[in-house]
């Protein structure tokens, strides 16, 4: 299958492109490299361009005889979205509309959209199912929710089958070390923790007074390759039905303090933790109810201990003699 992977030079997109290629598909990456790396778009052709440019998307769909689109490209910094909301709506919502129009023109009928647990906002229940109320707490989450709603309206009209996958916190890297999580700036907890452990630099732990057992925030961490596999399976599910809206998470939460302990054990290093107050808008607990996921995605998820142990033993974190 020829699959257009928007944002395929970024973290999750490049891992998905690599997996697609290893399964015999051809990933065609469309990326403007605003937050991606050209050297990671090496698992198939790279189209350098912007998703907001309908003509560019259309030409890529036609030129490569694309059969399905996996749409990762987005601006995805929560804090930045509160300062530059218009850019988030322009890029994420405007880009998604342009993709829908180009897909209609090119008669490409399957789309998997990167959504997020950020569509839910503050959790009202210990785990959040797909029907949990949607009250995004920031423009980033709102942009994802708006995209989902637009896709749901447009899809039946233009004959599009679609999946919206709401991921929780994505972690881990390619076990072969060819590609890895690399954002600049890096705001995600695990890469920052790994780096702090290895350099001896400070790890800033935001929030120790949450209403959680150890006071730190609880999140649901899903391994990037399991997530990549879920996208490919979602494309298969869409052969049987018109839509699929699903969380992707493990269904159990891990606190930041527990995560620190996991990293210290895996690297056999002490982390220099510097505690800071809770960041505005940082909810205490975000954990998936993944019962629906288990009905269509039959796959064992890597647990966090496993992911961290493997991370410690692959580039860019591996250091000779550090791990047994
Ligand atoms: N990383 C997570 O934990 C997480 C959790 C939930 C949802 N998501 C979603 O998953 C997707 C991928 O996340 P990621 O962590 O890989 O992000 P990333 O920033 O590493 O990758 C996004 C890619 O999209 C590209 N891009 C952005 N705007 C573009 C545009 N207008 N035209 C073309 N390319 C553009 C960037 O250059 C980058 O390569 C995003 O949609 C994000 O919202 C991520």
Layout of SSEs?
Elements: E1 2-6, H1 11-22, E2 26-31, E3 46-48, H2 54-63, E4 68-71, H3 78-83, H4 85-106, E5 110-116, H5 139-158, E6 161-167, E7 169-171, H6 189-199, E8 202-206, E9 218-219, E10 221-223, H7 224-237, E11 243-248, E12 254-255, H8 256-267, E13 272-276, E14 285-286, H9 291-296, H10 304-312
Parallel strand pairs: 1-2, 1-4, 2-3, 4-5, 5-6, 6-11, 7-10, 8-13, 9-14
Antiparallel strand pairs: 9-12
Helix pairs in contact: 1-7, 2-4, 4-5, 6-8, 8-10
This protein binds nicotinamide-adenine-dinucleotide.
Task: Characterise the protein shown here.
With 324 residues, this protein is of the alpha/beta class. It has a domain of 197 residues: NAD(P)-binding Rossmann-like Domain (Rossmann fold). 38% of the residues lie in helices and 19% in strands. The chain has ten helices and 14 strands. A seven-stranded parallel beta sheet has the order 3-2-1-4-5-6-11, with helices on both faces. Strands 12-9-14 form a three-stranded mixed beta sheet. The chain has a two-stranded parallel sheet with strand order 7-10. The protein is globular. Bound molecules: nicotinamide-adenine-dinucleotide. Nicotinamide-adenine-dinucleotide binds next to helix 1, helix 4, strand 5 and strand 7.
């Amino acid at each position: 299958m020829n699959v257009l992977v928007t944002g395929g030079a970024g973290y999750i997109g490049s891992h998905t492109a690599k997996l697609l290629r290893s399964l015999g598909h051809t990933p065609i990456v469309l990326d403007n490299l605003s937050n991606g790396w050209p050297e990671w778009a090496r698992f198939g052709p790279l189209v350098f361009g912007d998703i907001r440019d309908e003509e560019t998307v259309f030409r890529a769909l036609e030129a490569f005889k694309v059969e399905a689109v996996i749409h990762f490209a987005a601006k995805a910094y929560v804090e930045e979205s509160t300062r530059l909301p218009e850019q988030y709506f322009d890029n994420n919502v405007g880009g998604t509309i342009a993709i829908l129009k180009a897909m209609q023109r090119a008669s490409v009928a399957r789309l998997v959209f990167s959504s997020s647990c950020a569509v839910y906002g503050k959790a009202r229940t210990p785990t959040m199912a797909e029907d949990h109320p949607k009250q995004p707490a920031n423009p980033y989450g709102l942009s994802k929710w708006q995209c989902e709603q637009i896709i749901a309206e447009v899809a039946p009209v233009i004959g599009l089958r679609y999946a919206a996958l709401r991921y929780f916190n994505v972690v881990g890297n390619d076990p072969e070390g060819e590609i890895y999580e690399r954002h600049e700036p890096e705001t995600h907890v695990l890469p920052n923790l790994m780096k702090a452990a290895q350099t001896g630099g400070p790890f800033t732990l935001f929030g120790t007074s949450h209403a959680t057992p150890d006071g730190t925030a609880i999140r649901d961490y899903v391994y990037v390759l399991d997530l990549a596999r879920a996208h490919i399976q979602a494309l298969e599910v869409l052969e049987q039905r018109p839509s699929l809206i699903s969380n992707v998470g493990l269904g159990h939460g891990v606190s930041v303090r527990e995560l620190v302990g996991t990293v210290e054990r895996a690297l056999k290093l002490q982390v220099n933790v510097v505690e800071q107050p809770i960041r505005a808008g940082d909810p205490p607990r975000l954990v998936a109810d993944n019962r629906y996921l288990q009905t269509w995605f039959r796959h064992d998820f890597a647990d966090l201990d496993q992911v961290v142990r493997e991370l410690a033993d692959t580039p860019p974190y591996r250091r000779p003699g550090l791990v047994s």
